[in-house]
Amino acid sequence: MLELRLVQGSLLKKVLEAIRDLVNEANFDCSGTGFSLQAMDSSHVALVAMLLRAEGFEHYRCDRNLSMGMNLNNMAKMLRCAGNEDIITIKADDGSDTVTFMFESPKQDKIADFEMKLMDIDSEHLGIPDSEYQAIVRMPSAEFMRICKDLSSIGDTVVISVTKEGVKFSTSGEIGSANIVCRQNQTVDKPEEATLIEMQEPVSLTFALRYMNSFTKASTLSDQVTISLSSELPVVVEYKIAEMGYIRFYLAPKIEEDEEMKP
Amino acid sequence: MGIKVSTGDPSSLYLPLGFAGLTKLLADNAPKAMKEQKFESYFGRKIAVDASMSIYQFLVCCAVAQSSFLFSSSREDDSIGRTGMETLTNEAGEVTRYSKREDATKDLTEAVEEGDKDAIEKLSKRTVKVTRQHNDDCKRLLRLMGVPVVEAPSEAEAECAALCINDKVYAVASEDMDSLTFGAPRFLRHLMDPSSKKIPVMEFDVAKVLEELELTMDQFIDLCILCGCDYCESIKGVLYRFSFILRHTFCQFLHFLNVLPFETYIFLTPHLCLSVRYQIPEDWPYQEARRLFKEPDVTLDIPELKWTAPDEEGLISFLVKDNGFNEDRVTKAIEKIKSAKNKSSQGRLESFFKPVASTSAPLKRKETSEKTTKAAANKKTKGGGKKK
To answer: PROSITE patterns per the record (chain A) (predicted)?
Structure first.
């Protein structure tokens, strides 16, 4: 038996819009800690990890750990039927092969039930260790989205380098090249517009812009985005979800030519 | 009693054995061992390819490009033309196989795609024969393209499987089921099909095959021998039996194959005796075949598998000057290889994060009794299952 009541139903809608570009089908896992999802894109280059903590739900009941395979496009279709102010409740019975989304209007004068078929999804779960990153950049999510969009009109890849001066995004393509530098900027009165850089050592990594662009679909969830970089690890692009969780995107870097390929 | 009866049309079970038969057998009895995968999911992986199929494709391509590659055509009937692959393997004798990367291969096949249809039509009434010259030409071409080539001491399937077992490559791609018999941990079919056909790649997992069929590797080898392999004739009726009769009985059957001559076995259990008319060829070297599968002649003493940039000048001189290809097409193909190389420098997440067992049981249940307990046993891996 599973029953999760989320007052801010629009969050779920936004989460879905943010990830369905990257993955088509995924298993939602439900445990005592919260409602989560981990999924990779089909080429296993990017991964999305989402968590909505149990505390963030008005009512959270999950009797045993469950995993529900859903087609995200179909789920999005259903959630689009919910109003932005609606309260969304996710319900599932043991042994059933469907999940029900219930939308209640804020005034409680309209209740809609949408039942969706679940699917068997055979997916690998990756263990992601907690690690120290060499550089962590926090910046306005709208700014990051703009940078990725602009650069992708010039080239396919972005080099993100963090130095003491700031964070530099650069690309080059057939028509030319581009460099965008963002400096540390702590605006006291507007914390959402701040750019913060914590750097242990300088780092520079190359990524495919296509994926970065799809990550920025999550900008609607949060004013700020955190980009964590280490030369040995995939980049983490994290958006907080209103005090109750996060959505994290991991992207494997491009590898230098002469470096050894794993079998 | 674990009886598994195939629901298919019985007449279809009298298929020629060998590959088609074994695939059907696995689909019926070990569905979990087969997985459809997207082509992209092999991105950045090293894959050993048994080149015989590709050589055939090259020949098809060459026929269209009117190159000077040799191919002998004779007015054989249609069916021989269609089984050109088998002809290749058998006639080439010591077949040379290559290991090469999917990207490059895909590009190649793509490059010849336009010509493909016509060529197949033209060639369908001919027998294509691979000569040593072809093999050497192909090796040279691949090396010029910067693709590593491994020459197998004897059987290429075995060599590919050995590369895979020893973690030199991620998987083996072939159209020949023998790869499984040689124990390649991951075996891919349809990887080399033209992308326009949109056939998903079929991934076979040997460990799961054995688990689901409840066989040991030795027994599985026997089963493959019974179904027909390159080394000795198949026994008619075996597959029919296996698809219809108890799995357990079959295991016994295999067991007895180990200790008794075939002829005597036929009378062992009533089940098997009744409808099977085994015809065991007089000279049936199954022990030899078994030995070949178990102890194949392979070499792991190979240079490191490394992909290099294509040798542009070399390619042009080889293809255009020596073999009369159209220069524009060759240049375009080289461009494709180059861009494919760039793409492949993208890392994969698995090289950073390792898979762990999932902690939750699927809500939608099919055959979960085992799975659930496994999942419960692994609970500690993630966040714990504490109640709020």
So the answer is: PCNA_1 (PS01251), PCNA_2 (PS00293)
Helix, strand and coil content of chain A, in percent to the nearest 5, comes to 20, 45, 35
8 A C-beta contact, residue B297 and residue B161: no
Asked if residue B356 is part of any domain, the answer here is: no
B351 vs A117 pLDDT, higher one: A117
The side-by-side arrangement of strands in the sheet containing A2-6 is A59-62, A2-6, A87-92, A98-104, A111-117
Mutation pick from A66, A67, A228 vs chain B, by most beta carbons of B within 10 Å, is: A67
Question: What integer pLDDT is reported at residue B131 of this predicted model?
Answer: 66
Contacts of B165 (CB under 8 A, 6+ apart): B183, B184, B185
**Contact indicator for B168, B88 with CB cutoff of 8 Å:** no
Determine the residue among A62, A124, A230, A232 to mutate to test chain B binding: the one whose Cβ has the most chain B Cβ atoms within 10 Å. Answer: A124
Please answer whether residues B137 and B147 qualify as being in contact, where contact means their C-beta atoms are separated by less than 8 angstroms.
Answer: no
Count contacts between A and B (CB, < 8 Å): 142
Q: Please compute the mean of the pLDDT values over residues A146-156 and round it to a whole number.
A: 94
Residues of chain B with pLDDT below 50 are 1-18, 62-128, 237-252, 254-278, 344, 366-388
Whether domain A135-251 has CATH 3.70.10.10: yes
| A23 has a chain B CB within 8 A of its CB | no
A14-23, A38-47, A184-193, A227-236, range with the lowest pLDDT: A184-193
For residue B73, give its domain range: 37-206+310-344
Cα-based torsion angle of the residue sequence B355, B356, B360, B361 in order, rounded to the nearest 10 degrees: 80
SS (H, E, C) B254-299: HHHHHHCCHHHHCCCCHHHHHHCCCCCCCCCCHHHHHHHHHCCCCC
Q: Give B354→chain A minimum CA distance, Å.
A: 5
Taking CB atoms and an 8 Å limit, are B363 and A68 in contact across chains? yes
Q: Are residues B80 and B135 in the same domain?
A: yes
By CA distance, what is A65's nearest residue in B?
Answer: B360
pLDDT for position B194: 65
| Residues A209-227, mean pLDDT to the nearest whole number | 95
Mean pLDDT for the stretch of residues A176-188: 89
SS3 A170: strand
Q: Do B353 and A128 touch (CB under 8 A)?
A: yes
Residue A180 C-alpha, separation from nearest chain B C-alpha, in angstroms: 23
Task: Decide if A110 contacts A82 (C-beta within 8 A).
Answer: no
In chain A, what residues touch B383 (CB-CB under 8 Å)? 31, 33
Q: What is the pLDDT of residue B195?
A: 62
pLDDT at B230: 58
CATH code for the domain defined by A2-117: 3.70.10.10
Residues B193 and B340 grouped into a single domain: yes
For B140, counting Cβ atoms within 10 Å of its Cβ (0-12 exposed, 13-18 middle, 19+ buried), the class is middle
Res A91 pLDDT > 90: yes
Kindly report the average pLDDT of chain A as a whole number. 90
The total number of structural domains that make up chain B: 2
Q: Which of A67, A250, A262 is closest, CB to CB, to B351? A: A262
pLDDT value for A113: 94
A2-117 and A135-251 share one CATH topology? yes
Domain map of chain A by residue range? Answer: 2-117, 135-251
The span from the first CA to the last CA of chain B, in angstroms, equals 44
